[in-house]
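User: Last request for today: this protein with isatin, please.
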Amino acid sequence: MPISKTFTLPTTGAKVPAVGFGAGTKWFKRGGASDPFDTALVQTITQAVDVGFTHIDGAEIYGTDGEIGQALAEIIKGGKSRSDLWITNKYFAGDSSYKYRSSSGTPLDAIKKQLKETGADYFDLYLLHSPWIKRESHGFSLQEAWQSLEQAQELGLAKNIGVSNFGVEPLQDILKVAKVVPQVNQIEFNAYLQNQTPGIFEFAQEHKILLSAYAPLAPLYKGPGPIDPVVAALTKKYGKSDTQVLLRWVIQKGVLPITTTSRKERLTEILGIFDFELTQEEVDEIATLGEQKKLRLYWIPDYSKYDD
Ligand SMILES: NC(=O)C1=CN([C@@H]2O[C@H](COP(=O)(O)OP(=O)(O)OC[C@H]3O[C@@H](n4cnc5c(N)ncnc54)[C@H](OP(=O)(O)O)[C@@H]3O)[C@@H](O)[C@H]2O)C=CC1
Ligand SMILES: O=C1Nc2ccccc2C1=O
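Assistant: Here's the final one, the structure of the complex with isatin:
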């Protein structure tokens, strides 16, 4: 059977390109809107699409919507159409201090603003970036925030809607009112963090929510660790790089990886993950060895209580 280059969203049936290019992390503008326009990001996104990426991951808080918009304009000028791309974006909800949130207002307000800034017409997927929303701090509850996303979907502004960094509890909270079940939960995921929050992997499977992984390559740049010898053996067996083995592992766990790079050669390397398959035993071995090390890079201290 040919190896699929897409994941299918359970409810809408939409086909999502199976690896995403992130416009956050190393591109994230810590200085916000006052940071200079990043022409390197524009160039890297257009190069990424040139070599075969069709999935771009942005977020309100990254401050890179302008760059995504410029790249999109250039890509369309080059002959592609909007529908050739999958663009995810996210509403900035803040962290567990409840001190920060989008300056745009509700998710519906924010998506309208972000659509203008990117010129994207619609987002293929729009997420609540994090679950820390309450009426006292935000002016609306988490359930109301979800309903705001549902409205955005009804208006055609987002084809699919979902969440990011959600644990079981906030998911259960929105499921009480949801007319549309979240399609995706984008979480930190790799062999050393297989449950960002307790039970989330199983919960997502039960509720047919597609998990998407950021920091999929953390075992590479935050090593050494117990999976290293197995990954090294697999690179030899398959003639693939450690990056490719790790991304393949994520995909074969049923999770959609979002990665990024500033290096052209890594763009093609990343896409070289669709012509080989790990055996189930190899997938399981990495998972089992990975349990021996705990690594969390994001949403600290929000989720540090789970690391004690
Ligand atoms: N929803 C959320 O809360 C979050 C979402 N994200 C999203 O996910 C995207 C990807 O996240 P990220 O954690 O960066 O993904 P990865 O774990 O895939 O890391 C990518 C980074 O790893 C570096 N890298 C790759 N190979 C190596 C190597 N062999 N040695 C050292 N460094 C290496 C790359 O650098 P180089 O440029 O040199 O190739 C790049 O900066 C983000 O851009 C963002 O869109 C990320 C974090 C949180
Ligand atoms: O790309 C990201 N970098 C981050 C750092 C801290 C919290 C969230 C994020 C992102 O989404």
